[in-house]
Amino acid sequence: MKKAGIALTLAASLLLTACGSTKESATSETAGSSSSSAEAEKVIIGTGSDFINICFYDEDGNLTGYDIELLKEIDNRLEEYEFDFQTMDFSNLLLSLESKKIDIIAHNMAKNPEREEKFLFNKQPYNAMPTHVVVHEGNTEVQSIDDLEGKKVGLQPTSNASLFVEKYFKEHNMNTESVYVSSTQDYLNQLKTGRIDAIFLFPFAVDIFNRESDAELKVVGEPLMFTDIHFMFNKEDQKLSDAVDGALEELIEDGTVKELSTKWLGADYSVELNK
Fold first, then answer.
1. Residue span of the signal peptide, if any (predicted)?
2. Which residue in 60, 97, 226, 253 has a CA-CA distance of 20 to 30 Å to 112?
3. How far lies 98's CA from each of 104, 206, 231, in Å?
4. Is residue 221 domain-shared with residue 250, that is, in the same domain?
5. The pLDDT value given to residue 186
6. Calpha distance 158→245 (Å, rounded)
7. How far apart are CA 261 and CA 274, in angstroms?
C-alpha cells in the first residue's frame, strides 16, 4: 500500500475515534508470553494490521504498535492466559467478538452507548487521546478554539470531536460555520486550500499525515478533550477483563505505559488516564 493511502485510511479512522484497518489478514501471532504452559487459557486478540503506530506490520513484517506491545506486556504478567493475535478488517472486529471468534478487541476503541449495550469495556483506560484544533501550517490567526469565531471548521459526522465542538460553539454563542465532510481526502484538501479554517485531530495523527502525505498541518492551543481508550470484551468475560485491568494498573504504576506511549504516540498520555 502506498504511504499516502495508508495515511488517508488512518485519517478516516482517527476522526471517528474508533479506528479500523482497511485490509484483512489470516495471520495470527502469539505474544511473547511467559505462560507457555498447556494449562494457560488461550485468549484471541482481534486487532488491525495497518493502523500506523497502533497496530500494524513494520518493514520486517512484524505486528507491532502501541496496542500490540502493551498487550504483550500484559500477557507477560498473566500466567493463567496466553495471548494470540489475529488481524482483520475493522468492520469484522465487532462481529467476531459477538460471535466469540475472538475474546478481546484492541484497536483504539472508544466507548459509545451502542457498544456498551452489547459489549464489556475494561474499567482501566490504557490511552487518553487528546483532540486539538488543527490548522494549515501557514495560519497565524487561529491559536485556540476561541479564535474560530466567524470561521469555518471541518467536522466528521457523529465523531466525538464534532459533538464536543458543536456544544462548545453553542454554549459560547460563537458564530462559527460547521462544514460536515465525510471524505477524508476532501477534509484535508479543504483545509489545505483555505475553504475551511480548522479541523480537529490527535497530535500523533498530525505528525503522520505531515510525514506521509504532506498535509501541511499544525496543532494549536491546549487539548480540547481527552478520549479514554479501552479494550473490549464479551459481557460474560468479566474475569478476563478484571485480570487485564490488574495488569494494566501495574504497568501504569511502573512506568511501562508511559514508556510505550512516548515511543509510539510521541507523548506521555498516561498522566491523563482516569484510574
1. 1-18
2. 253
3. 10, 33, 14
4. no
5. 83
6. 29
7. 15
The SS3 of residue 234 is: coil
What the block records as the C-alpha cell of 271 is 498522566
Residue 274 located in a structural domain: no
Q: pLDDT tens, 162-176?
A: 889 999 999 999 999
CATH of the domain at 177: 3.40.190.10
Q: Are residue 66 and residue 153 in the same domain, yes or no?
A: no
Please report the pLDDT score of residue 208 as a whole number.
84
Q: Which domain holds residue 193?
A: 130-225
**How high is the pLDDT of residue 211?**
87
Partners of 180 in the β-ladder: 155
Per-residue pLDDT reduced to its tens digit, 186-222? 888 999 999 999 999 989 889 888 988 899 999 999 9
Q: Report d(CA 270, CA 274) in Å as an integer.
A: 9
Domain count within the chain: 2
Residue 49 located in a structural domain: yes
**Residue for cell digits 502506498?**
2
Question: Does residue 275 lie in a domain region?
Answer: no
pTM for the model: 0.79
65 and 51 in contact (C-beta within 8 Å)?
Answer: yes
Rounded Cα distance, 124 and 135, in Å: 33
